Amino acid sequence: EGISIVYPTINAGGGNIVMNGKGYASASGYGMGVSIEYATVQTSGNGMITLTGTGTTGSNWTSGVWIDTATVSAANGSIALNGTGGSGSNPFGIALLNDRLSHKTSPFYH
């Protein structure tokens, strides 16, 4: 995985959060660009959250952005998710499973 966040809370306190990840090509490992599981990524005020991920080739779980049982929250800012799936198994551009996206402005999914 390019960026893997499991269980912690990341709080920018009003600042922006930007994550750019590219999966690692592996015959048996995970190839997700950005993976957030059982975690909280949040900011307050007008802070924005941008997650950009590119899945890889030839490995398992090659989604660009994978959010599973996690909370992504921007109080007054926007949330932008940009994902490109790879060519292995589960090559979703953006995969949202059991998630909570919270924002006041419209999110941008690309």
How does this model look, in words?
- The chain is mainly β.
- The protein contains no helices and twelve strands.
- The strands form three sheets. A four-stranded parallel beta sheet has the order 1-4-7-10, with no helix packed on it. Strands 2-5-8-11 form a four-stranded parallel beta sheet, with no helix packed on it. A four-stranded parallel beta sheet has the order 3-6-9-12, with no helix packed on it.
- The model has no long low-confidence stretch (mean pLDDT 87).
Rounded average pLDDT? 87
- Number of helical segments? 0
How many strand segments? 12
Strand order of the largest sheet: 1-4-7-10
User: How much beta, percentage-wise?
Assistant: over 45%
Q: Percent range for helical residues?
A: under 10%
Low-pLDDT segments, ≥5 res? none
Calculate Rg over CA atoms: 13 Å
End-to-end distance:
20 Å
Protein structure class: mainly beta
Q: Note the overall shape.
A: elongated
Largest sheet composition: 4 strands, parallel
Query: What is the string of SSEs from the N terminus onward?
Result: EEEEEEEEEEEE
Could you name the key traits of this structure?
mainly beta; four-stranded parallel sheet
Short description:
This protein has 110 residues and is mainly β. The chain has no helices and twelve strands.
Question: How is this fold's topology laid out?
Answer:
Blueprint: E1 3-6, E2 9-11, E3 17-22, E4 34-37, E5 40-43, E6 49-54, E7 65-68, E8 71-74, E9 79-84, E10 94-97, E11 100-103, E12 108-109
Parallel strand pairs: 1-4, 2-5, 3-6, 4-7, 5-8, 6-9, 7-10, 8-11, 9-12
